Structures are given as C-alpha cells and as structure tokens.
Amino acid sequence: MSSRQAKSVKRQPPRETESTCRFVLPAPKEDDVLSILLQAIKELGDGGEDFPVPSIEPVDVEWVGPRKHSDHERPEKQDESSLRDCSPRVMYVHGGGYTTAANLARLTGGKCLSVNYRLAPQHPFPAAILDTLIAYLSLLYPPPGSPHKSIPAASIVLCGDSAGATICFAVIQVIIQAQRSSRSPNPRIPFYNEQVVLHLPAGLAALSAYGDLTHCMPSWLANLEKDYFLPINPTLLSNYPECEIWPTKPPRVHPLCNDTVLHHPLVSPIAVADWTNFPPLWLCYGEEMMADEGKFIAQRAAQRAVPVVWEQYGDMPHCFAWMPPLNRLPQAQKVFEKWADFCRACVEQPKAIRTRGTFTSADDMQERSVDVEHQLDLSLDEVKRRMDKGRMEAVELFSKRKWSRMKL
After folding, report:
1. Could you tell me where the DSSP H helices lie in 148-255?
2. Alpha carbon distance 202, 343 (integer Å)
3. Are strands 356-360 and 367-369 parallel, antiparallel or unpaired?
4. Number of CB atoms found within 10 A of residue 246's CB
5. Minimal CA–CA distance to 87: which of 154, 161, 16, 25?
6. pLDDT tens, residue by residue, 57-110
C-alpha cells in the first residue's frame, strides 16, 4: 500500500503551456470548521460512528492554469501575480487523476486549485474532508498572503475523480447540514479572524465517483469483466501485502475508516437521505463496477429536483478518461469537453442546466438518451439493507485475516 500511495501522489512536471503555483494554506486558529464537520457526522449518522477526530492542519494546494506569457521562463517559476489575472472556476480534489486539473483549467479557460489533502490510512476519515473544506472556504475567504483574491462561490465548481469526488460530495453535505441545523441559508462561522458565510459552490462535477465503500450494488459483479477492480476490497484478502502503513494500529476493516462508518453518507454518498438544495451535478462513468452507485445518486438527486447531467460510456472502465492509454481515445476527449462545458454552464448559465442523460456506445460513439430518474429499481431502504450486508461481510472477512506484524 505504501508503494502504491507513493506512485499515486507523484506529480508530473508542468508543461510549457501551464502555469503553476504551489503554496500552503495556514491552519485556521478557530475550530469552527471542524465543529460543523463533526456536527454533520453526528446528525447524518446513526449514532454508532467510531472515528478519530482529526487535528486542524495546514493544507497543501496548487494553482494550475494556462500560461499567458510567451517568454521561455520555466512554468514552475511563474510569478504568483499571473494567477491573479483570472478567477478560477474549478477546485479539483484528486482521486488518482493528477493531470486532470491541468486539462480542466485549459478547457474552461480558467484556473484550477488542486487540493493535496491528507491521505488514508495514515489520516483516516474525516481528515481529507476537513482539509478540502478548509481549501474551499479559503477560495471564498483567502487568508493573508494567499496568491488569489476572494472568489464568489457562484464562480466555483467542485470537481473530482473516484475517491476525490466522494470528498466533494461530503463537503457539500457538510455545508447543507450546517444550513439546516442553523435554519438559515447563510450560516456564519469564524474563519481566519472573520465571520464568514457558508455558501454552496455553483456545481459538482464527478468522474467515476466512488459512491459506496461497502461494494453492495449489482454492477460490482455485473460489470466485473469490463473493469480492473476486484469484487471485494483487496486489503481484506489474506495475501494482501503488509507494509509500514498497513495494517493500521489498531487494525481496521478499510484503509479510510472503521466499519462503523462505511455506510455513512459522508463516506458512501449512495446513503444520502435528502438531496434537497444540492447544486447541479455532472456525473460521468464508464461501464464500470461503480456505475450503479452513480446511477442511484443521479436518480435520487434528480427526483429531488437537482439538475443532473448523467453520462456513461460503454465498455469503458473506472476513470478511463485520464488513464493512459485510454486517455487517447475519442471517448476520453469527449468526456473532458463535456466536463468543461458543464463547469462553464454552472458559472455562466446555471438556470439553463436541465436533467438529462446519455449512454455513448463504444463501437460507433453514438449517444442514446437515458431516463436519469429511473435507472435502477432500488429504493433507499433496499440499498441500505444491501450496505449493511456488505459491511458485515467485510467485517467477517477482516476478522479472518492474520496480521504478522500486528501487536494487538
């Protein structure tokens, strides 16, 4: 796991056409951001959640955008002032797609803030959500010394792939829950020595969002031959290699969290009970093992009058649009163009976004319409029963695992 994690966070050097600026957001002295996160975990859960409370730490972020200069200065040496020229439209939360931020910045014509949140298993749930929430609020209310000015929430679209998209869903849930708890559409909290309003972003755009950590949906088996995952979490297998970061001490069933949190809506957004007030959603999947998670999220949100744009690509696996060599296919190019179109629409014409769905065939790239609100014949109660069963199966498998390096 440690070697895989190291590969996943390795950055590619910026292209000559890219301007980058990496910096660290200071940790807010106030603990109110953490408080609203913990409140959301409590209010959205069933009361049995067991998790470590994360500390509030500085957050490593990086601006990415197209270079505007014609000289031969190296991209990583670009002056920070170049990043003040254009307000960004994207805050990107990576799963594995580090190059995705640059592509979205180029196609939207804006800037993209990439968030380098703390990683599990060293930093389990909800540390990554806390880091991303701080980064988002820092766009609206930048701390002193930031290379950007205040950016309106209506100009920001949260984007992510795989587990990063799951974090985006969680950030929006935390803000909505704070609004509900305060009974105000504009709740305020102290943040960097100011009283700030918790505004929602203009939209959320997700590629292959990881919607269910219990792996309970039918597509985990139905689409097995078209994807590259195992039908169960590999860390549960007896032959999964141990290393300095896994297993954890004490051991837990999943690298991200304890089994008591696997079915929580901040971890598995298919469990969200009420999608009211969510901003517009763009959900894109291959014909992958996580596809039913996305379908269920899409139909539940659309049924609550959230504008949902659903796109699925036949025979394509998880996160195919950024993954070599599949990222050279015309389907991948189409995904990024549609992704950027949605981001621009959220900022420029949000009222024009309407719920619609398409399935693009692998053979001829032809689109057919999809009824977004009726993709799966599953109720929320049935999905929750499936999640409970999946969680118990994971616990049973985990209990049979023998850890050679574990001192209990």
Report:
1. 163-182, 219-222
2. 9
3. antiparallel
4. 21
5. 154
6. 999 999 988 876 544 444 444 444 444 444 448 999 998 555 688 889 889 888
